[in-house]
Amino acid sequence: MPEHHNHTHGTQILGKRTELYFSLLCGLFLLLGFILATWSTVTPVIPLLAYIIAYVFGGYFITMEAATKLRKGLFEIDFLMIAAALGAAYIGSWAEGALLLFLFSLGHALEHYALNKATKSIKALSNLSAKTALLKNGEALKEIPIEQLALNDVIVVRPHTKIAADGVIIKGASTVNQAPITGESMPVDKTAFPDLQQIPSFSEIDKQHLVFSGTINGDNALEVRVLKLTKDSTVSRLIRMVNDVETQKSPTQRRTKKFEKIYVPIVIAVVTILCFAFVIIPESFEASLYRAITVLVAASPCALAISTPSAVLSAIARAAQRGVLIKGGKALEDLGSVTTIAFDKTGTLTEGKPSLKEVMAFQNFDKSELLKLLFEVEKLSNHPLAKAIAQAIKEKEQLVSANLAANVKAVQGKGIQATYKNEPVYIGNTKLMEDAHLTVSEAVKNQINTQLEAGETVMLVGYKNDIVGLVSVMDVPRKTAAKTLQRLKKIGIKNMIMLTGDHERVGQAIAQQIGLTESRGNLLPEDKVTAMKTLLKHNNKVAMVGDGVNDAPAMALSTVSIAMGAAGSDVALETADVALMSDKLEMLPFAIGLSRASKRIINQNIFISLGVVAILVPVTILGLTNIGLAVLFHEGSTIVVVINALRLLAYTED
Ligand SMILES: Nc1ncnc2c1ncn2[C@@H]1O[C@H](COP(=O)(O)OP(=O)(O)OP(=O)(O)O)[C@@H](O)[C@H]1O
Ligand SMILES: [Zn+2]
């Protein structure tokens, strides 16, 4: 029953650990009672008194929980435990009853302690943020609480201090330790945004100019323009999301819960029947009751209840330490069971920062005019191809923006349309030209093929009813891509498929270089959806790794969506099931390996919990053990299961 492990009912008079102290006090009075009872000269009333006090301390929290649940009409483990303890008292086995309450409450206090430990690394995130910021006001600096920061405020970040807000660097260059958010241990180089006149929105700025609240500045001072309020910062949202994660149940958790719903009433029924065993077999009512209570203890599915949530939480905590946000038990279990992964190409398997290869003018169109057109139009688009083209031309030609382009509209999977000097312009693939009723001549087609042959991504430029030029770029695979895919294969991923909007041939070339099993090109976003549907039909569970640029619909459809570089992308962070905060593809085998390990541990835990019950129940029914041993094994398995789950906190890839 995961709920009762997540919060405590009743008093907290001894602070956060009241539950633990109460349990220890219970144990203390139990011991006292035991000593007094064996000390023959005292009257039996005195040890009894000690046992009663032990009952009060041991039973307090359990009774509170049982009562809350009873009010909701739920009979759960706590209720069973109270019944067992009261029954033990009735038959005069006060010591055993007190032992039961002691171990049960200790077990639970330890569970809570363990779970707190698991959530601690996540909760530590909330301590990440700086408390104050150095606000720059003209030349004056003023220290203010971060909550008072407003958008577009400029703050100064001194060397080796925490960055107090999400924003863009406007002055200075430094290295920043982003480990708290992305899990990357290497500091990242950051520079000022080049064009302070026109600062785009947060998610359109290249990450080398962005800083995040909670990360740590290196050797040089920075000036940062605040682009997000404290409550909306990446770290605040991370904390919020991780807190939500705890309340989402995994499929196994739901299944065990369902099982308990049927199982617990059966236990109650069997135990009730056992109370009347004396009717059939020659024994006293007390003997029957004793057996019934022992069976009750043995049959309680306490370990089962804690086995999955403790593993899920430990795994999520471990992932968070490495900059991987897994949003709940379902995502974790799905990720642990996929054997098929679909990848987006641009920005996922490739760097996403293509270099400009060729700019070619046709039809006597002036080349420098073509360059200018490309720069003006592409700088208005935030597609990675557009960014690369605009940036490269700008640097090469030393262009400054003249704002000659307007009305930019992205045509998904095809390119963009806009106006340049008030005339319609189209930049994109052949499909886009066809849509615009521009005929692609044989000569142009041949030129496209030449470029494709070299592995370049080709785009055409249609302007004033003519195809006036061609531009090609080349994106390179991430350095770690090939190795990562190899590792994925090793841990059991069978199908790795690339879904790209780029030309089939470019896709094939990249796929071969890095070792994908399959590549599909020329896909519009809706084709990616269709491809995903087909994959799901054949493989049942499919993960999709992407950046959300043109693959959001396909990602949404996948069993488990994985966003890369989520630290800079609001949408990806919010919508993906798993977010790799860093841009590091190599975190994928870690995340999947961890998920698989969790699945294994969950299965082991369920096996242990059910196994102990399966052995203990017949043994107790046959009267082969006493209540003390039943208590020891029952609570022992709970503790074993929790410790097994905690191993995930130390998970590393082999
Ligand atoms: N802003 C743009 N400027 C020029 N061409 C574009 C632009 N956006 C898209 N295109 C053209 O449309 C094609 C498909 O784009 P899309 O965004 O679907 O995929 P992609 O970025 O090439 O690859 P992936 O699907 O792997 O991310 C591109 O290959 C390019 O030819
Ligand atoms: Zn429990």
UniProtKB/TrEMBL annotation:
Residues covered by the P-type ATPase A domain: 128-242
Signal peptide (from-to): none
Protein EC: 7.2.2.12
Catalysed reactions, semicolon-separated: Zn(2+)(in) + ATP + H2O = Zn(2+)(out) + ADP + phosphate + H(+)
Membrane spanning stretches: 20-39, 45-62, 262-281, 293-317, 606-625
Keyword Metal-binding in annotation: yes
Name of protein: P-type Zn(2+) transporter
